[in-house]
Amino acid sequence: MSNGRGPGGMTAKTAICKVMRQQKRATGDRIFKEVKKIYQWKDNTIYRQIMGQTINLWPGYHEWDWISQEDKCLLLRADGYFEYYNQSKHGKFSDQAV
């Protein structure tokens, strides 16, 4: 497909959320590999989307300000794993530095 869209018009952003809904918890490397199985987006696209979709990665709010808070589906845990972000479980985050 054109314009960086995968199967059915899926974006890398959508693919990451799909992978995390299935995995629930995964390393960045695992997310990358599973997204790459869906479509061959450029590596940098996937890495930047992972960072941009991480709700508790403060610089991401400024670097990728076009990704709305509602679209962020990743939470980076202290142990280095990502979880599928759930506001009722993890709380609400904002673009303010901690």
According to DSSP, the number of beta strands is 3
Largest sheet: 3 strands, antiparallel
Q: What is the gyration radius calculated from CA atoms?
A: 13 Å
- Spatial strand sequence of the major β-sheet: 1-3-2
**In percent terms, what proportion of residues is strand?**
5-15%
Oligomer: single chain
Mean pLDDT, all residues: 88
Give the terminus-to-terminus CA distance: 40 Å
Q: Give, in order, the helices and strands.
A: HEHHHEEH
Shape: globular
Low-confidence stretches: none
Summary of the model, kept short:
This protein is 42% helix and 8% strand. By secondary structure, it is mainly α. The protein is globular.
Q: Would you kindly provide a written description of the structure presented here, covering whatever features stand out?
A:
The protein is mainly α and about 100 residues long. Helix content is about 40%, strand content about 10%. The protein has a three-stranded antiparallel beta sheet. A hairpin with a 5-residue loop joins strand 2 and strand 3. Helix 2 crosses helix 3. It is globular, with a radius of gyration of 13 Å. The model has no long low-confidence stretch (mean pLDDT about 90).
